[in-house]
Amino acid sequence: MAEARLLYLGTDQGLIQLANPGHSDRWREVGRALMDQRIHAVVASPRDALTVFVATDQGIYRSSDGGLRWEQLRAEPVLSLSFGPGNRLYAGTQRGAVLSSRDGVDWEEHEDAHAPIIQLLDLDDDTLLSLAADGLICRRALDRWVACEVHVPNARGLAATYAAPHTLYLVNATSLVTPYGTQRLPAPPTGAILLLRGRDEVLLVGTQQQLLRSPDYGSHLEAVAGPQQVTVLITPPRFIDQVFAGTADGALWFSRDRGRTWVELRSGDPPLRSLAFARAQ
């Protein structure tokens, strides 16, 4: 059976589902869902490509058939989702709690940050990071939360290197914050930040104007032609040179050369806030 690639676009006005049945860049729309809701986060299950979870102001939803049918799993505002330690699904809520579940039905509540959890980031060493709206960063190991010891005022997004997963890169209201110092950016960051794995990792940072790229962990940043006002960046698993970017003006962009050059795949949608990629047989 041929491989099908699935791409889920979380927008300010619902979820858009795209499919690519081959290895081209010809993505076609195959469905829409939850069109009356703002999609804060969407993640595809690493164990089942047809299972996808979505976070909205109304709660957490799940589809087990690639987006054809949906069920609500929890009814409270949720801003972030990630798979993390123990292959559990983690959710960051508006009220500041982190939830986890093995099946999406029964949820365990963890440390309360007392501020909305705007990002969850899974590291490669069975560690999950949570970023709260007040800039507090906490780490969860496989069996417990460890001390919340990092605080970056006005933090909007974070990324970690693959070579050293506990080395963090962050953006706040004006700047890029790295282990080597703070660099003011030419335009305010949107919160989109990504490190591409590889022998030479590449840093991508979205701003309210151009997308910035650095081949040296942020020491030198250059604007790339193409996407503007990038709000979300993802790299498909096992495709370390490829990147998808979603923008505030509803455009979807793609790069296959580690962010050097870009092609627009789609435009005219509501603002894009989250992307998820899956492969199904």
| Class by SSE composition | mainly beta
Distance between the termini: 6 Å
What's the arrangement of strands in the largest beta sheet?
3-2-1-28
Total of helices: 0
H-E order: EEEEEEEEEEEEEEEEEEEEEEEEEEEE
> In total, how many beta strands?
28
Low-confidence stretches: none
Proportion of helical residues: under 10%
Strand content: over 45%
Task: Show the helix and strand layout.
Blueprint: E1 4-11, E2 14-20, E3 28-33, E4 39-44, E5 52-56, E6 59-63, E7 71-74, E8 78-83, E9 89-93, E10 97-101, E11 108-112, E12 117-122, E13 128-132, E14 136-140, E15 150-151, E16 157-160, E17 168-171, E18 175-178, E19 181-184, E20 189-196, E21 202-207, E22 210-214, E23 222-228, E24 230-234, E25 243-247, E26 252-255, E27 263-266, E28 272-280
Antiparallel strand pairs: 1-2, 1-28, 2-3, 4-5, 5-6, 6-7, 8-9, 9-10, 10-11, 12-13, 13-14, 14-15, 16-17, 17-18, 18-19, 20-21, 21-22, 22-23, 24-25, 25-26, 26-27
Task: Kindly describe this structure.
The chain has 281 residues and is an all-beta fold. The protein is built from no helices and 28 strands. The chain has strands at 4-11, 14-20, 28-33, 39-44, 52-56, 59-63, 71-74, 78-83, 89-93, 97-101, 108-112, 117-122, 128-132, 136-140, 150-151, 157-160, 168-171, 175-178, 181-184, 189-196, 202-207, 210-214, 222-228, 230-234, 243-247, 252-255, 263-266, 272-280. It has a four-stranded antiparallel sheet, with no helix packed on it. It is globular. The termini are close together.
Provide tags for this entry:
single chain, 281 residues, mainly beta, four-stranded antiparallel beta sheet, 0% helix
